[in-house]
C-alpha cells in the first residue's frame, strides 16, 4: 500500500504519485515539452524540473524511447522519440523523502499523411508549357508549412504558408517550359511542416514521384 493509502495504480507510478487530498505538497514538480502535438515518429525535448533545492532523485517515466541530454540538481532534459499514439509523460522528483509527480499529455497527429503531386498534361512537346501542382489536404495546428517542387534534386519552386486560425488546404503550382531531358527526371514535392515556432523540429514528407513524357 502506498504511503497515502492508494490502491490500483500502475506499479511504476505507485512510488511516485501522492493521492489527491491525502498528502501535503511540500514542493512542486514541473514538466515542459517543446511541443504538445507531435507527428508519429517525431523526436523532441522534454524538461523535468522542481523547486526543491536538493532533490534525492528525479526523472521522466514514459514507455517511449528517452535519452538524458543534460541535467543539474533541479532539472533534467530528455530527448524523447518513437511516439505512435497519444501518451502521458510523467516527471517526478523525491525531496526530503517525499515524492511528487507531474503529468503532461502529448497528442499525436498525422498532419502530412498525404502530399499529392500532379503534372498537367503528362505528355507534352518540347518547348510547350506544362503545370506542376502539389497539394496537401486540410492541415491544421502548424506554425509554417513549405511546399518545395523538385525536378530530381533541383528545386524549381517553393511556397510557404503561415499559421491560420483553422484548417487549410495548401496548394503550390508552377508552370514550366518542357525541355527534352525533362523526361529523364522524376518530379516530386517535398512538404516541410513546423508545428511550433520555438521548436527546431521539422516534419517532412515527399510525394510519390511523377514522370513527364516529352516528345518532339
Looking at this protein, list some descriptive labels.
216 residues, mainly beta, four-stranded antiparallel beta sheet, 1 helix, elongated, disordered N terminus, glycoprotein, ICAM_N, membrane
What does this structure look like?
- This protein is mostly beta strands.
- It contains one helix and 18 strands.
- Strand 5 and strand 6 (75-81) form a beta hairpin.
- Residues 1-24 have low confidence and may be disordered.
Tally the beta strands. 18
Tell me the span between the first and last alpha carbons: 83 Å
What structural category do the secondary elements indicate?
Answer: mainly beta
Shape: elongated
Model regions low in confidence, pLDDT < 50 over at least 5 residues: 1-24
Q: Helix-strand pattern, N to C?
A: HEEEEEEEEEEEEEEEEEE
Separate helix tally = 1
- Give the overall average pLDDT: 83
Roughly what percent helix?
under 10%
Rg, alpha carbons: 25 Å
Profile the largest sheet: 5 strands, antiparallel
Strand fraction equals: over 45%
Amino acid at each position: 500500500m502506498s504511503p497515502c493509502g492508494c490502491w490500483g495504480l500502475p506499479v511504476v507510478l505507485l512510488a511516485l504519485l501522492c493521492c489527491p487530498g491525502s498528502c501535503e505538497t511540500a514542493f512542486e514538480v514541473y514538466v515542459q515539452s517543446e511541443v504538445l502535438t507531435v507527428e508519429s515518429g517525431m523526436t523532441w525535448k522534454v524538461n523535468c524540473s522542481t523547486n526543491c533545492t536538493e532533490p534525492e532523485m528525479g526523472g521522466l517515466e514514459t514507455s517511449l524511447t528517452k535519452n538524458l541530454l543534460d541535467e543539474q540538481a533541479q532539472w533534467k532534459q530528455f530527448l524523447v522519440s518513437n511516439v505512435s499514439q497519444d501518451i502521458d509523460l510523467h516527471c517526478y522528483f523525491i525531496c526530503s523523502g517525499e515524492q511528487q509527480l507531474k503529468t503532461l499529455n502529448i497528442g499525436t497527429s498525422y498532419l502530412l499523411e498525404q502530399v499529392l503531386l500532379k503534372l498537367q498534361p503528362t505528355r507534352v512537346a518540347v518547348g510547350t508549357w506544362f503545370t506542376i501542382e502539389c497539394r496537401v489536404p486540410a492541415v491544421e495546428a502548424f506554425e509554417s508549412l513549405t511546399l518545395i517542387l523538385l525536378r530530381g534534386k533541383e528545386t524549381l519552386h517553393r511556397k510557404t504558408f503561415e499559421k491560420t486560425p483553422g484548417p487549410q488546404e495548401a496548394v503550390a503550382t508552377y508552370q514550366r517550359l518542357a525541355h527534352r531531358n525533362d523526361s529523364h527526371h522524376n518530379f516530386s514535392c517535398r512538404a516541410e511542416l513546423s508545428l511550433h515556432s520555438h521548436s527546431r523540429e521539422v516534419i517532412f514528407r515527399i510525394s510519390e514521384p511523377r514522370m513527364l513524357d516529352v516528345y518532339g
